[in-house]
Amino acid sequence: MKAGRGLKSVALHPQKVGYGVSVGGHVLLLAAALVGFLSAPQKPDEGESVPVEIVSDEPAQSTRGDRRGERTPTPQRVVDRQTPEERQTPDEASVPVARERVQNIQLPPPPTPRPPMPQPPQPEQAEAPPPPAARPAQVAAVQPPQPAPRPTPAVAPEQREDLEAKLAEIQAQQRREDEQRRQEQRQAEQRRREEEQRQAVAQQQRETREREQREAREKAQREARERAQREARERAQREARERAERERQERANARQFDPNSIAARLNTSPTQENDRRQAARTEATGASAPVRTASLGTATGAAARISGREIDAIRAWAERCWEIPISAREGNSQAVRLRVSFNPDGTVTGRPEVQNPRGDSNFQVLANSAVRAVMRCSAEGGVRLPRERYETWREVVLNFDPKEMMR
């Protein structure tokens, strides 16, 4: 049936359960009404009661004639009945027709008795007992005819068209609802994908921000450690300079009134004089000189001279930290002579002094690089020289010549 096919197309959706149940219930009610209307048997018409009148024989008794008279035949009671032809046909069964009631039974009036004929006298005889009164005839109850089974009426074409139109409308409504549910599902899926994408972007941004913050913290910690180390080195250097300055001041105070100091300054060795002359020539001509120290006198007047091994150790120590500038490698750069003062532990005290200053910018760059090299080597660790010969290498003049370094 079409109603069954309509019911199969009903589908409940989790998002609109109430609406689906309502539509399904209406469809079920329509289908049940249609099935009940088509399959219900037609109720037979109840037979109508037939009135029956019983006629007494009292009028006959009152009008009874002579017993010798002619007996009048008793009329038979006639009951009107329907003939089979008069019964309703099956086509007329759908149209209710009132049956004719059985008419009242009427007896004909009794006949007038005729005058008796004269008879010869007869001897008197005893009268015969009167005949028993005739019992009224029992009228059989008229059984109403059984109605023929009424055929199932066919559904009118108009009703069938209305039902088909309703079912088609319900199916179209359900198709529209299914399409609307699919559209809502697609929209929900699109919103879910957009939400997942938004969360992924937010998660990526959050991870990037956390990574940048972590790197910034690590960088700040690293810079703090480097700054602390640099401050510690500078503090150590400052303390070393202050200590060396105090020691120098103490030695200066000890030599201030020493009568042998003048003699020590006058009694300079030929080597010291040669060194001074070589330094003067270097300053005048710009020629390079090997790295060496000027011989300094002692408090007792005994001359002290730095050894070649000590000179090589100081030269290797300074060259290890020196980086020649690019401008000094291209042309004929002037050599830089630095006076450097050492502490007993081999570190530099104070800042090296340039002995041959010039106004040339290339020379200034070269001089600054030489000073940075000495300070860098001192921060990394002093030169390793014997402490017992500290007076011989306490102050030295270092000659930084780019041409010798590039050989």
From TrEMBL:
Could you give a single Gene Ontology term from the biological process aspect?
A: bacteriocin transport
Cite the residue spans of the region called Disordered. 41-291
Which segments show compositional bias classed as Pro residues? 107-134, 144-154
Where in this chain does the entry annotate a coiled-coil region? Answer: none
Q: Name one GO molecular function term.
A: toxin transmembrane transporter activity
Where do Basic and acidic residues bias regions lie?
A: 78-90, 158-167, 174-198, 206-253
A single Gene Ontology CC annotation of this entry is: membrane
Record keywords, A-Z: Membrane, Transmembrane, Transmembrane helix
Q: Which Gene3D superfamilies match?
A: 3.30.1150.10
Transmembrane residues, as ranges? 21-40
| Descriptive protein name | Cell envelope integrity protein TolA
Q: Which organism is it from?
A: Phreatobacter stygius
Its taxonomic path starts at:
Bacteria, Pseudomonadati, Pseudomonadota, Alphaproteobacteria, Hyphomicrobiales
